[in-house]
Amino acid sequence: MDGVPKVGVIYIPSSNSLYEAIDGCGAYLNGAKLSVDSASGVGDALLVNNIGHHRENDFVDESAERIRKWLRAGLRGYRSSGSAAINMAHVASGIVSCYYEHGFGGPWDVAAGLVLVHEAGGVAKTASDGSDFILSFGRGSICTGNAKVVDDVIRVAGKPKVDFA
């Protein structure tokens, strides 16, 4: 097709949660329609952020500084998790307002979640510069949620110095 995922399915066995979406048909959790959270910016957002497995000094320092920036800007709540797919499912369902990760492992981490977030009314942007997210191979950078919160989270975080392009 055009390189854009059209179907997304994420199953979380521990909660028996089946998230599913088809392009143009909406996003659902166990049959109930989903929509993203309505946070308007960092100050009323619950943000989930993966730092990933990278432990290079520059990357660790940059990741910690990004979290400090969000907290100093009045972030309502912060969570850290290890699964891009689950984080994006939670964004689609409004459990969290926004998911940000600079340095995810590859397209398999985010492909299903992209369909879920889009079909739930959200957006996906490249966390490093705020451009529309395009699925590609290699490490990546992503921020998902409603358009307002995504733009504000990226603005506060600033442009990462460590590049995964």
Description of the structure:
By secondary structure, the protein is of the alpha+beta class. It has one domain (about 5-155): D-Maltodextrin-Binding Protein, domain 2 (3-Layer(aba) Sandwich). The protein is about 30% helix and about 25% strand. It has 4 helices and 9 strands, in the order βββββαβαβαββα. The longest helix has 16 residues, at about 55-70. The mean pLDDT is about 95.
Task: List its salient traits.
165 residues, alpha+beta, D-Maltodextrin-Binding Protein, domain 2, 5-stranded mixed sheet, 4-stranded antiparallel sheet, 4 helices, 30% helix, globular
Strand line-up in the sheet with most strands:
6-5-7-9-8
What is the assembly state of the chains in this entry? single chain
Low-confidence residue ranges:
none
Q: State the shape.
A: globular
The CATH architecture term is 3-Layer(aba) Sandwich
Quick description:
The protein has 165 residues and is α+β, with helices and mostly antiparallel strands.
Helices and strands in order:
Elements: E1 7-12, E2 17-22, E3 27-29, E4 32-33, E5 46-49, H1 57-72, E6 77-80, H2 84-92, E7 98-104, H3 107-119, E8 123-125, E9 140-145, H4 147-157
